[in-house]
Amino acid sequence: MASAQEHQDRIKDFGGGSNQSRVRAHNERLVLSLVRRHRHLSKSDIARRSGLSAQTVSVIMRGLEKDGLLVRGQPQRGRVGQPSIPMSLKPNGVFSFGLSLGRRSAELILMDFVGQERGRVRQAFSYPTPDGTLKFVGDGIAKLSEKLSPAEQKRIAGIGLAMPFELWSWPEKVADRPGDLEAWREFDLAVELGRRTDFPVFVQNDATAACGAELIFGRGAELADFVYFFIGSFVGGGIVLDHAVYPGKTGNAGALGSMPAMYEEGQPPVQLIERVSLFVLEDMLRAAGIDPSPLWRPLDPWTDFEPVLDRWIVGTARNLAVAIVSTCSVIDFEAVVIDGGFPDDVRQRIVKAIRGELETLDLRGIRTPIIFEGLVGRGARAVGGASLPLQARYLLDQSVLFMSGAE
Known about the structure:
With 407 residues, the chain is α/β, with parallel strands linked by helices. The chain has helices spanning 4-10, 26-38, 43-50, 54-66, 130-145, 150-153, 183-186, 189-197, 206-217, 278-287, 308-328, 344-358, 380-394, and strands spanning 70-72, 87-89, 95-101, 105-112, 117-124, 156-163, 201-205, 226-231, 235-241, 244-245, 335-340, 370-373.
């Protein structure tokens, strides 16, 4: 699969569309981004935070309100002069689809302008196929679009696709036969979705997209720099520096699953994905005679997985602790965020176990990072995907809001 930038170069021009969905000018994006970050702001607040003149802000806000992107709140009285009128993003001002495609399941969500999920469809499978994926997305878009009025359907900004950039890799972990995933090597899902749906398609590595969701809707409000681990079929991750996701040259920065894992005497070196993944837990459950299918159904509890689950958590925490120390020895991250495709109580247990494992390691020469639980949860990849069209067409990078007083 091509890099994120190569995808964007090959997919349709983002600049077309209706007045509501067109790419916004920089100052309009700045205003929308500030309002999104703070949830509601008055004209004077925006002028102070952005450095724009009050007159410029007034003109921009009137235009955004006319376009249906901002909505007025109740006047706030009690100060000298005219009452302050807070402005907020209009939830149904813009919508987007977020598609998360993994090696065991696919998920499509419909999200509004303030990040609220309006609908979700999901499908589990033994392994993904191009034709099956296209059918799932087509049916899902039709089903989710029914939740919107005809006027709201015209406000859909695009599809954000979050998927591994090498879906065909590690076939021995996924498919029954080595060639079952080879079709993905020459198939460009983003381009095909653009042709079939007539929506602009925006692509990002799935773990990086999950990291972006955590930045926007989770710990990003309190952390400027962090490394992010998402444990799904395989473990992956992302890097946040100065309030912005760092994608790297090919969009694959934070490919933490490819890090060397803990060395075991007498065994050849392996990558972290060999030790930390839901596939590892699936194999352990099968070996113990336990049905692993609830792993891939998000509403099913994991209550029948003990004591295998406890052993998996111990091994996962031990390997992640070493990976965290390796990562923080390269970049002085203030924090580490852990999330994944598991119930909340499992995430809590993993984070607690990692903290304990860090206490056993030699940390001389580095500052011990704070370990946080992710706040977005299992759906982080789809949420991050759905954020891509909104970010590309209406908003500014998070880091801009912390520059020149625009915070």
